[in-house]
Specification:
The protein is mostly helical. The protein is about 85% helix and about 0% strand. Helix 1 runs antiparallel to helix 3 (about 40-55) and helix 3 packs across helix 4. It is elongated, with a radius of gyration of 17 Å.
């Protein structure tokens, strides 16, 4: 593939994966954790594959790393949100 075309396709995959992960994560809010997090894995694959195309990295390894990274980031966000919510409830109870 031509280098500029490869980069354009890679950026498109990155944007598609990030947008899709954001939409799915918002829609999965309140559902069981493992199911919700696993629904994000395909979008992480897109992000990893896009990064591999743009940067010239190994496609398979980047796709797996992207899937894992999106799940970890979503889990961390859920934990932080739960802590904020618990802190807010504790403050309003008194």
């Amino acid at each position: 593939m031509d280098e500029p075309l490869t980069s354009v396709v890679g950026v498109a995959l990155l944007l598609l994966g990030a947008t899709g992960a954001g939409v799915v994560h918002r829609r999965q809010h309140g559902r069981p954790g493992a199911v919700s997090l696993l629904a994000l894995a395909p979008f992480g694959v897109l992000i990893g594959a896009g990064a591999a195309l743009v940067r010239g990295w190994d496609l398979g390894l980047s796709a797996v790393a992207g899937a894992m990274a999106v799940i970890v980031v979503a889990l961390a966000g859920d934990v932080l949100e739960a802590r904020r919510r618990a802190r807010g409830q504790r403050g309003s109870a008194g």
